[in-house]
Specification:
The protein is mainly α. It has one domain. The chain is 75% helix and 0% strand. It is built from 14 helices and no strands. Helix 3 crosses helix 8 and helix 8 runs antiparallel to helix 11.
Length: 275
């Protein structure tokens, strides 16, 4: 009886270990939606959008117009700091607490890095999307969702016009934020990779905003001449260069996936040397 009990217990432990090995991403998703930092980041994005607008007198016309205005101004780049807040420093944090070694010993380095890469990117996308919705909803306390002039401009040359026609304004604000969130996800991935060299948390959080500014300035006379490679156009749904919503979001996501593969691989190789 004792032998059978021990055998069943051992089988149960092996099953639990296998479950833990294959559920890195589920664990990270659970942490994402239960940690305070995620919701503080969403609030941070919304507050930064208000600060980006500047004067109260500029908050006019409509909620969507104000959202477009806030993302056009220079202060908008600070939202990328909040995109990196939930998981941007995960590698340096888990190296310091030795949790990384424990997790890798249970499930392997490849699965660990794949999960972290996915959650860093996804958390940034969701943070920007939810923050944009929150900002827009607050604006509707005093403003209509959209004015006629903004509607005509977006219908003619912007993205997700079908949502505006069906008056799904929350959906439009969410997708607009998500598209910018893809950019935030790329920047957060680069920042998390650099954290393996410089573990200062302030540096990690500030890096996405700095990187975006560097990319914009450096690309002025080079790759930004082609609108397909200009971050200010790729991730901004007010410009629908393909005249197709599907192609527009697919191109932005394709760049995001490329960043996941490139920096996920680079992170894996770097951690291989450190483990």
């Amino acid at each position: 009886i004792i032998y059978l009990h021990r055998r069943r217990k051992r089988r149960g432990n092996i099953y639990i270990m296998k479950q833990k090995r294959t559920h890195f991403l589920l664990t990270d998703m659970y942490r994402l939606f239960t940690k305070k930092g995620t919701y503080l980041s969403i609030i941070g994005v919304a507050l930064t959008l208000f600060l980006s607008v500047g004067n109260r007198s500029d908050i006019t016309d409509s909620a969507i117009y104000t959202l477009l205005l806030s993302t056009y101004k220079a202060g908008f780049i600070l939202t990328f700091v909040f995109c990196a807040l939930p998981y941007g420093s995960v590698y340096s944090d888990e190296l310091e607490t030795y949790y990384m070694r424990y997790a890798v010993s249970r499930g392997g380095l490849k699965k660990y890095v794949a999960s972290k890469t996915g959650i860093i990117f996804l958390s940034s996308v969701l943070t920007m999307g939810a923050g944009s919705i929150l900002f827009s909803v607050i604006c509707t306390g005093k403003l209509p969702w959209i004015d006629s002039q903004t509607y005509l401009i977006l219908e003619k040359s912007g993205g997700y016009a079908a949502l505006l026609k069906s008056e799904n304004y929350i959906g439009w604000a969410g997708l607009y934020g998500i598209q910018w969130g893809v950019c935030g996800g790329c920047l957060a991935l680069i920042s998390s990779y650099l954290s393996l060299y410089i573990s200062n948390k302030l540096f990690i959080l500030a890096m996405p905003a700095l990187l975006y500014q560097i990319i914009i300035e450096a690309g002025t006379n080079t790759f930004r001449k082609n609108s397909m490679f200009d971050p200010c156009i790729i991730f901004d749904a007010r410009y629908n260069i393909f005249s197709s919503d599907v192609k527009m979001i697919a191109w932005a996501l394709a760049i995001g996936i490329c960043c996941c593969i490139i920096f996920g691989t680079a992170t894996y190789k770097k951690l291989q040397k450190r483990m």
